């Protein structure tokens, strides 16, 4: 069992989820309330990782992070090393890759909040942030939890992007799914099987707990509340 | 609404959980690697040999080797994009030379550490008669033949050259399945998903493959020699240990270990060593 890969993957997934909560919540909030006519463009961009082949995403992230791009050079001058094939680079790629899994359930939940409650909160003098934290967020817990769990599970299982951006370096970018691929190539089927079973059991348990906890609030997706 | 009462509480819990999580994560970011270790990018034909070589080196020096296997062409691209390896063991000399031309390696560190050999491999259950050499591949019962991707795997290039030499390539081209590297190619045939494969000898004689099938060596004259070279990368953060590993590879004991996995030492490299204090490996 490749424990370093397992811990690395969990660390990556937690970090990505934390970033997604911070970055994804304002996007989801904005998407659910804006009346901007070009909103659908933003919606399409957010949803793009859902339909893009991971290799396409991985390729562009690799190019964007590389030493020939302005972003890559800026990061290199800041930290002294490039982004590709590092844990930070992997985290950034994973955030982009899992963005729709966090934003979409949250946006759906936010849209379902009764507007009258939000208006009442404003009339009573609460700021927009206070309204969001005290009214919107509590009423959208289901969507936030779904977004968190889905992006966690998605990061846990991502493969193509990690392989292209991370490059299978033990202890740095070798996640569980890459380690399994690696074991199969080394003809170590028993080793691959041990990790695959663990991943499967973990995914199943996580999803079961989430569904069980939220059963009363929403069925499968916040829209069907 | 009782529901909103309950979710008001869980809303706070979610917020607190996020802060707690963020705090934990800040403390739990991957630290800089403590202790001496080097990262080695190794061609896939070294998958089994280098497990032993690395174990020996770690025992002798007490330092750690982190191995990543893949196709040489893939590593070549990754190193150009800044992959943080200390050493690169290619399955050819071309990629190391191109890295040298690009100024990405420590000058003068190109070392030809081994000569690879090609074999044709079939699973035990196969009824194919391997004694006919590559002409065996013309057997109409064969549906899939595994080779490494000739675009970026040196063993794939050699396999195509050997098939062209045997004048079978054009007839079986449509049956080829391409492994991402030579190790995946071996996995394709070992699992029975391909009927025959052109592999590295070093994989065919490895414990995981040996009992699962039969192989025949393809005459060395039928394909350009697979001279494999290693380099220390300029970006290496531990050049001292990288140098130490490079020297370890040239030791007679290591050469003997590599020979057990089917690697021979390129002749000119051996001759060069004869001039030095080191005895010629047999």
List the helices and strands and how they pair.
The complex is a heterodimer of chains A (225) and B (282).
Chain A: H1 3-33, H2 39-51, H3 54-65, H4 70-79, H5 87-111, H6 115-123, H7 128-139, H8 141-157, H9 160-166, H10 176-185, H11 189-214
Helix pairs in contact in A: 1-5, 1-8, 2-5, 3-9, 5-8, 5-9, 6-7, 8-11, 10-11
Chain B: H1 2-27, E1 37-43, H2 49-61, E2 64-70, H3 72-80, E3 87-89, H4 94-101, E4 111-116, E5 118-123, E6 145-148, H5 154-165, H6 169-172, E7 176-179, H7 182-190, E8 196-200, H8 201-204, H9 207-210, E9 213-217, E10 226-232, H10 239-250, H11 252-260, H12 267-275
Parallel strand pairs in B: 1-2, 1-3, 6-7, 6-8
Antiparallel strand pairs in B: 3-10, 4-10, 5-8, 5-9
Helix pairs in contact in B: 2-11
Description:
- The complex is a heterodimer of chains A (225) and B (282).
- Chain A has 225 residues and is mainly alpha-helical.
- Chain A has a single domain, classed as MetI-like (MetI-like fold, Orthogonal Bundle).
- In chain A, 76% of the residues lie in helices and 0% in strands.
- In chain A, helix 1 crosses helix 8, helix 3 (54-65) packs parallel to helix 9 and helix 10 (176-185) packs antiparallel against helix 11 (189-214).
- Chain A is globular.
- Chain A starts with a helix and ends in an 11-residue tail after the last helix.
- By secondary structure, chain B is α/β, with parallel strands linked by helices.
- Chain B folds into two domains: 37-115 and 227-275, Periplasmic binding protein-like II (D-Maltodextrin-Binding Protein, domain 2), CATH 3.40.190.10; 116-222, Periplasmic binding protein-like II (D-Maltodextrin-Binding Protein, domain 2).
- In chain B, the strands form two sheets. Chain B has a five-stranded mixed beta sheet. Chain B has a five-stranded mixed beta sheet with strand order 7-6-8-5-9.
- Chain B starts with a helix and ends in a 7-residue tail after the last helix.
């Amino acid at each position: 069992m490749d424990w370093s890969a397992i811990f690395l993957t969990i660390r990556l997934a937690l970090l990505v989820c934390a970033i997604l909560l911070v970055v994804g919540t304002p996007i989801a909030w904005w998407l659910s309330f804006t009346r901007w006519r070009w909103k659908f463009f933003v919606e399409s961009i957010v949803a793009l990782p859902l339909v893009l082949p991971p290799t396409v995403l991985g390729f562009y992230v690799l190019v964007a992070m590389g030493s020939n791009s302005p972003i890559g050079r800026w990061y290199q001058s800041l930290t002294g090393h490039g982004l590709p094939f590092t844990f930070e680079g992997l985290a950034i790629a994973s955030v982009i890759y899992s963005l729709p899994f966090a934003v979409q359930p949250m946006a759906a939940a936010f849209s379902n909040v009764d507007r009258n409650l939000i208006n009442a909160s404003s009339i009573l003098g609460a700021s927009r942030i206070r309204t969001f934290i005290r009214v919107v967020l509590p009423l959208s817990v289901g969507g936030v939890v779904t977004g968190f769990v889905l992006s966690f599970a998605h990061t846990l299982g991502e493969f193509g992007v990690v392989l292209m951006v991370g490059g299978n370096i033990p202890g740095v970018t070798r996640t569980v799914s890459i380690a399994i691929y690696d074991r199969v190539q080394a003809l170590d089927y028993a080793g691959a099987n041990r990790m695959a079973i663990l991943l499967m059991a973990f995914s199943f348990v996580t999803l079961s707990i989430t569904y069980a906890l939220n059963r009363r609030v929403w069925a499968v997706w916040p829209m069907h509340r | 609404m009782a529901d909103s009462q309950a979710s008001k509480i869980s809303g706070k819990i979610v917020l607190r959980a996020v802060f707690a999580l963020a705090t934990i994560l800040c403390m739990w970011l991957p630290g800089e690697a403590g202790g001496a270790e080097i990262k080695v990018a190794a061609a896939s034909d070294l998958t089994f040999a280098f497990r032993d070589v690395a174990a020996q080196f770690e025992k002798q020096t007490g330092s750690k080797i982190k191995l990543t296997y893949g196709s040489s062409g893939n590593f070549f691209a990754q190193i150009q994009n800044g992959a943080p390896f200390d050493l690169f063991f290619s399955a050819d000399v071309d990629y190391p030379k191109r890295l040298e031309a690009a100024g990405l390696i420590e000058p003068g560190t190109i070392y030809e550490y081994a000569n690879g050999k090609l074999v044709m491999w079939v699973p035990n259950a196969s009824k194919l008669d391997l004694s006919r050499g590559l002409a065996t591949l013309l057997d109409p019962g064969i549906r899939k033949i595994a080779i490494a991707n000739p675009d970026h795997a040196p063993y794939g290039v050699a396999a195509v050259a050997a098939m062209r030499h045997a004048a079978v390539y054009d007839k079986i081209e449509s049956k080829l399945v391409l492994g991402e590297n030579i190790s995946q190619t071996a996995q394709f045939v070992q699992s029975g998903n391909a009927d025959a494969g052109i592999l590295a000898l070093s994989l065919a004689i490895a414990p995981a493959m040996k009992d699962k099938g039969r192989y025949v060596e393809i005459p060395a004259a039928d394909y350009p020699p697979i001279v494999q070279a290693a380099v220390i990368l300029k970006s290496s953060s531990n050049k001292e240990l990288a140098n130490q590993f490079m020297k370890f590879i040239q030791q007679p004991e290591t050469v003997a270990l590599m020979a057990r996995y089917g690697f021979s030492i390129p002749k000119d490299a051996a001759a060069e060593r004869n001039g030095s204090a080191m005895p010629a490996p047999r």
